[in-house]
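To the team - NAP complex, inputs and output below.
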Amino acid sequence: MRIVKPLETMMLFAEGSVALVTGGSRGIGRAVALDLAREGAHVVVNYARSEADAEEVVALIGKEGGSATAVRADVTDEAEVRRMFQGVRADHGRLDVLVTSAGITLDRYLVAMSLAQFREPIDTNVTGTFLTCREALRIMQHQRRGAIVTVSSTSGLDGGFPGQTNYVASKGAIIAFTQALSNEAAPHGIRANVVAPGFVSTDMTRKVPAKIRKDYETRIRLGRMGRPEEIATIVSFLASDKASYMSGAVVVAHGGGLG
Ligand code: NAP
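Output:
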């Protein structure tokens, strides 16, 4: 006899679970927010500038029968980040999942890069990860439970392409940061893992000059760029109890890499 499970038990997250996705308004973060909501979590969709996009994500989740709210906070701003997490604590009293997808590139050849241009991606990508993980930990340690997924890049492992020293440094730092965080957080029942995508079709990669993008794309062994949804399913898995023995891992999703 075939046992048919009720729908709720097939979702990755129990009712009442709360997830916060930084940079949830666009690209990979947007897809992550949608996937986490489909898997049963209430999702706090963080954004810095794209309010309309964030509200659209919230509306879409609502239309699909899920639950979400949009919250503006620049992840580089300590006070704004703190307020956002205070809001989560006040509204929900818990936080089960943090996904740090907020990120920027600012490509320049190193010889022409100003100090400010070097610092900008480091600030958003690394300081933003630090500030949000710190606030998340403060909630999760009380619960003695939680899962953090940071978003790095294969460029943090292989050096990326020319003109990205600032971005690559930030993405390498996210990997090291998350592994150190995993060591600290594990005794508190909190897991922290990294997803490292290759080339994914979003606004970020649409900014890359067409010729470079095309060259790169044809070298990807699976023959195409990734879709944000293909990263989101990995993030949801890592954030869920299905990955209960994974912490400090770097999961690469790059279509087989470059040939
Ligand atoms: P995207 O489409 O450009 O989206 C970037 C997101 O980050 C937006 O939601 C943006 O929100 C948010 N953001 C930027 N600065 C922020 C800040 N200071 N505070 C809060 N949110 C901020 O980029 P994406 O391709 O989805 O990239 C998402 C993450 O994946 C990044 O960390 C990126 O490094 C990583 N990644 C991307 C690729 C790829 O090929 N696309 C590959 C590897 C890794 P607002 O618009 O509201 O500012």
